[in-house]
Design brief:
The chain is an alpha/beta fold. It has helices spanning 2-14, 34-47, 49-61, 70-82, 146-157, 161-164, 178-199, 218-224, 276-290, 329-350, 369-381, 389-394, 402-408, 428-434, 437-459, 463-472, 482-485, 493-496; strands at 86-89, 98-104, 117-124, 128-129, 173-174, 203-210, 233-235, 238-240, 251-260, 299-306, 317-326, 353-362, 411-412, 415-417.
Length: 508
């Protein structure tokens, strides 16, 4: 088999259509001047360090759910305004979104393109229900959001059993690493600004305050309303337990499932009932059987949010939340059809009525190879070692609404280590680690690397065409592995369902 692998690798390397990767480096990249890099490092590690730590602590001390990041949004907006950025609050018709823009036209002639390179950075702000800033926490405080408590109390007064049993309406907010993501975006944007002014580099740098990444699709809504599309490149960082500039982030579809049956006494007259819980458990069983025929890169997972109220009553209402993921949007469409067929068959066999709501949908992440190489090179200069390209692409980092941004403009979202190997993101140990000084310093280092990568494009604007060509011709879609690229020829799963499911129309 080794000879076959070697032959395939040789053919791919010789092919003009072979994908580029950071470690292949098919063409030399221009270098960033040491003076510019020194300005970046001094700005982030010295000039801004204390202020960024203060912002981080404040955001962690006040975790907020998606679209409710009022404190974080105001803190970041005020800070960027004080640093000379023009700030638009409530941007793109979203209360907690903001856009901060700085433009430096440059004074020298003949050395740069007439149009400044437009660089975008993202700063996420939201926390998770039940974990809070589990992408990075500082205090072990559990906060019940005021609106959540009011909604739950209203449901109690109205005796609304559906809302009372929906975990969205009684939850604790725990800190994610979003404080680290936020200050990484702030640090990178300010470093680009300072370097551009000091070294006379034409640039337009934009920091997007993006709400509700955790299932709310803030960037998707912003993109639909005109954000990001004018940028030449857009970048952001995400903390992890290791360093990876080519992570795989899958396309994702959220689905909320409701089965409606008929209540009956489970002992006296069960035959009079229609068991909505049977329908739901059948759906889970159907999906478990389906997994054997799914591709290794497919993912389907779900939870029961309402399984009934009493064990002596046939449940007349059950609800669940499911997520389907795949390496590409095209494969996700196929997978969703199969999953919906499982839901529909469960309704048919139990006699229950199926109500299916398609909620948020994210695209897969496309990592631009030139931007990835630039970032990797900058981080290696700072002592960071990266796995091989294949190892990086084989590592799944879930899903992100930045995936949609990366389909609109050339983008990059590297994962960076916070200095605690083996501690997985979205866990309580990671929450603790993300609040440490060590995590803060690792974040600043990654932000300096990201800013330096962006400034390499700013200082060498001809890279803009190369990056755009990669984007237009698909060579930036490095996250799609060989299994996912195999054509799928099959009869639509919808046609095989025992009863027709609701029409497939994702709501975003």
């Amino acid at each position: 088999m080794e000879w076959l692998k070697s032959s395939v690798s040789a053919c791919l390397s010789a092919s003009p259509c072979a994908e580029e990767s950071p470690q292949q480096q098919p063409a030399a990249l221009p270098k960033l001047g040491r003076a510019i890099r020194d300005t970046v490092d001094a700005t982030i590690h010295s000039d801004l360090n204390a202020a960024l730590r203060d912002l981080s602590v404040q955001i962690h001390g006040h975790p907020e759910l998606g679209y409710q990041e009022f404190i974080a949004s105001e803190l970041l907006s005020n800070y960027m305004e004080a640093q000379g950025f023009a700030v638009t609050r409530e941007a793109f018709e979203l209360e907690t979104a903001f856009v901060a823009v700085f433009r430096h036209a440059g004074t020298r002639r003949g050395h740069f393109d007439s149009e400044p390179v437009k660089v975008g950075f993202c700063a996420e702000m939201d926390a998770l229900p039940g974990l809070g800033h589990a992408c990075g926490s500082f205090f072990n405080i559990l906060i019940i959001e005021y609106w959540t408590l009011l909604t739950w109390m209203d449901a109690l007064l109205q005796q609304d059993t559906v809302r009372l049993q929906d975990n969205r309406y009684l939850c604790v907010v725990v800190r994610l690493t979003k404080h680290l993501i936020a200050i990484a975006g702030v640090a990178a944007a300010l470093a680009v600004k300072e370097a551009a002014v000091k070294h006379d580099l034409p640039v337009q740098v934009t920091l997007y305050g993006t709400p509700a990444e955790e299932g709310g699709g803030g960037k998707v809504r912003m993109l639909q309303r005109g954000a990001f599309v004018d940028d030449d490149i857009c970048l952001m960082l995400h903390p992890e337990d290791g360093d990876n500039c080519l992570p795989t982030c899958l396309a994702m579809q959220w689905m909320e499932v409701t089965y409606i049956g008929k209540a009956a006494h489970a002992a006296a007259s069960p035959w009079d009932g229609i068991n909505a819980l049977d329908a739901l458990t059948s759906a889970f069983t159907n999906i478990s059987h389906l997994r054997q025929q799914l591709l290794p890169t497919d993912r389907v997972h779900g939870i029961i949010t309402n399984g009934g109220s009493k064990s002596n009553i046939i449940p007349d209402l059950t609800t669940a939340k499911f997520i389907a993921r795949a390496p590409t949007s095209e494969r996700l469409d196929v997978l969703v059809e199969k999953v919906v067929a499982c839901f529909s068959a469960a309704a048919q066999s139990s006699g229950a009525q199926l109500d299916l709501e398609y909620s948020m949908r994210y695209s897969n992440l496309r990592s631009n190879p030139t931007l990835a190489r630039l970032y990797q090179r900058e981080m290696e200069r700072r002592g960071i070692a990266f796995p091989s390209d294949d190892e990086m692409r084989a590592e799944s980092a879930g899903s992100t609404d930045f995936g949609d941004v990366s389909h609109a403009v050339p983008g990059l979202q590297p994962m960076f280590s916070i200095g605690f190997p083996g501690v997985e993101v979205h866990t309580k140990p990671f929450v603790e680690a993300a609040g440490s000084i060590a995590a803060h310093e690792h974040t600043l280092s990654a932000a300096a690397g990201l800013a330096s990568a962006a400034l390499t494009v700013v200082a060498h604007p001809k890279l803009r065409k190369r990056i755009r060509d990669e984007f237009d011709h698909g060579t930036s879609d490095l996250t799609v592995g060989p299994i996912a690229k195999q054509p799928v020829s099959e009869r639509s799963a919808l046609l095989l369902a025992s009863s027709p499911p609701p029409p497939y129309a994702p709501v975003v």
